[in-house]
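S.,

Sequence below, as promised.
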Amino acid sequence: MSKDLKKRGWSFVGLTTVFAFMQAMGLINDHSEGCVTRDKASAAGAALNRLCEVIVLLILRSAIDGGATGLGLLAGLSHPSLHRALVAVHDAPVRAWNSGDLAAVAGMRSAPRKKRSMRCPT
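The prediction came back faster than expected:
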């Protein structure tokens, strides 16, 4: 941000300038309790967060529509069943997920795992 502002003619960009910019954009709400601006700033921050989510979704959809789904997260999100499991993990990140739970959410069968003995390699 500092480099961009300097390109636009600013001679100095310090912490105060950056902090003020972040306040103005609704990224920081340090208004004290009871301040009339606190609620307005909170609402602006929520709107900004939602806007960012929408932009990320549009970028992901564009990448998927453009065929960028070889491997990785985009491949999983574009899979007809697997995306349900990825969304479920995102919606409940503190849950202790196992492969059976994820398979059930995705409507898939979980493959049986071979039992392995865990021994120290030394």
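The mean pLDDT is 75.

Coffee later?
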